[in-house]
Structures are given as C-alpha cells and as structure tokens.
C-alpha cells in the first residue's frame, strides 16, 4: 500500500468554494476510473475554514502512478494552485488499519 496525506490551505473563502468544486469534479472521475485507488477522501478542518486535508491510499506505487497520469488529475494539478496559499504533502508507508482489505 502507498498513501499520501496532503494539507491544502486556500487563499480565501471564495477560493475555497472554487477549490471544493474542482475537487468534487475530480473525485467523480477518480471513483469511476481508478480501481487501484483504495481511499481518496477530502476533509474540511474544524475551525480552519480555508484548510482541506486529503487522505489518499493506493493499492501500490503503480496505482498511484496510474492515478497521477490521468487527464483529470493532470488538470486538477494544473488548476489547483490558483486557489491555494500553501500545500504540504506527506508520503505514508502503510502499517495496518481497519477497513482496508488489501494485502501489503
């Protein structure tokens, strides 16, 4: 398994609305086209209205690379920066968890 945790901070509230719309459009495509993407969740942060946390879990590095090569992900990556003040990315090495039925 391979994962990411990404913290995005939007520029302002208007940018957050636009970013959320971009995320929603991209998420539809991810759910429909990526069997190797095990979990792809987006969260608002309580008390931090401009922050979003993405938790992404992929079957393996190859599934992540497939995800990154999709046209809709390339579009998301190209568009996101006009809405964001900052981005922090942590790569995760899966140890264990509940609800994940994928062999290491």
Automatic annotation (TrEMBL):
GO terms for molecular function: monooxygenase activity. The keyword Oxidoreductase applies. InterPro entries: ABM_dom, Dimeric_a/b-barrel. It comes from the Bacteria. Residues 1-76 form the ABM domain. Keywords: Monooxygenase, Oxidoreductase. This is Antibiotic biosynthesis monooxygenase. It comes from Streptomyces sedi.
